[in-house]
Specification:
Elements lengths: L12 H6 L26 E5 L4 H12 L7 E4 L47 H6 L10 E4 L4 E4 L2 H10 L1 H4 L13 H27 L3 H22 L13 H20 L11 H11 L10 H9 L32
Parallel strand pairs: 1-2
Antiparallel strand pairs: 1-3, 3-4
């Protein structure tokens, strides 16, 4: 798909993990809509996602901004994975709409049963097992006709939805997330790489690494990159590439959406909030206001998912100042004075 930032370098991954570094694994299903076996047809494809997962968030964003909600069905996993007592073992994404969330004391209305395969699977790993695979990650793009997994790499799914939005039946297929201009594509690719390494995956490097120096490096690079992105937007451009929303904006949004209410605390990224970057804050509010974007997000799922995995399972209630989130995203004027 022409995207260099779809996986992390796996060199010495086992040793690096043993030393405390978070190393993201590699997605194993890399087919594409548009291949001869996977034609672009409305109603044929299905997505399995978790709304707290930022990699899934890329995909739900693409689905919504391209107007594919009626063309590509969606199942939503519960934000917390299975525990040690589960009959299918721990750490599995589960379809559990009857499960009560600690944060709300109720079930989560967005959560669904598994409806894409026709088998009513309870955990995501069963979808993979049906094809002889041992993976257990989301998102998954699934072909309901052939009963096959097409792809489970979020960056590639975003790209193929954008390219084939018209043939898939997208109501907003005219939106070009990856414009057909070689120079623009080269710039988007480079920006995507920076955003992935320093921001998207960088947040996980900081938050889930147990080595202080690895954390410190990721922390420093994360905020240095936010400074660069703030300067990029300081010329008044509405989006990262200029006047038009592109893949680069779509891929930055899930992390920055989570930063103030979740990552600032959970990922130990507490140098500053996005509120402290006036241009980035206004960009964040601008993107959140685009049709379909707010419907792709759930901070309840994010808070439940991230903090529900912490040592005591207690989910923080805030922040509530200067305004509760996500309500704050409707108020670009909250941006603080330049740092």
């Amino acid at each position: 798909m022409g995207d260099r930032s779809t996986q992390e370098d796996q060199t010495g991954a086992k040793t690096r993990r043993a030393q405390g570094e978070f190393v993201r694994g590699v997605s194993g299903f890399r087919h594409s809509i548009g291949d001869s076996e996977f034609p672009a047809e409305p109603g044929r494809y299905h997505l399995f996602v978790a709304l707290n997962c930022p990699w899934c968030h890329r995909v739900t964003l693409a689905r919504n901004v391209l107007g594919l909600q009626d063309a590509i069905a969606l199942d939503v996993a519960f934000p917390n994975r299975t525990d040690e007592d589960d009959p299918d073992g721990p750490n599995n994404w589960q379809f559990a709409p009857e499960t009560v969330a600690m944060l709300t004391g109720t079930t989560l209305p967005e959560c669904t049963e598994e409806t894409g395969t026709g088998q009513g699977y309870r955990v995501v790993k069963q979808i993979y097992a049906a094809e002889g695979a041992t993976e257990r990650s989301v998102p998954i793009l699934y072909d309901k006709l052939q009963k096959r997994i097409v792809n489970n790499e979020s960056a590639e799914i975003v790209r193929m939805l954008g390219i084939h939005a018209g043939a898939l039946g997208g109501a907003n297929a005219g939106l070009s997330l990856y414009p057909d201009d070689a120079a623009l594509r080269s710039e988007i690719d480079a920006l995507n790489e920076t955003i992935y390494v320093a921001i998207n995956n960088g947040a996980y490097k900081a938050g889930f690494s147990s080595d202080q120096s690895v954390y410190a490096t990721a922390y420093t690079v994360y905020f240095q990159t936010l400074d660069k992105l703030e300067r990029r937007l300081s010329d008044g451009r509405p989006y990262l590439m200029g006047d038009h929303f592109t893949e680069a904006d779509l891929r930055l949004f899930p992390t920055l959406y989570r930063h103030d209410p979740v990552y600032y605390l959970r990922m130990k990224l507490n140098e500053a909030k996005i509120l402290d970057y006036p241009h980035l804050w206004r960009w964040l509010c601008r993107v959140h206001a685009l049709p379909g974007v707010a419907d792709s997000c759930s901070l309840i799922h994010c808070r439940q998912g991230y903090f529900g995995r912490s040592w005591n399972g207690v989910v923080p209630l805030g922040p509530a100042k200067p305004m509760p989130y996500p309500k704050a995203y409707a108020h670009p004027e909250l941006a603080r004075l330049p740092r």
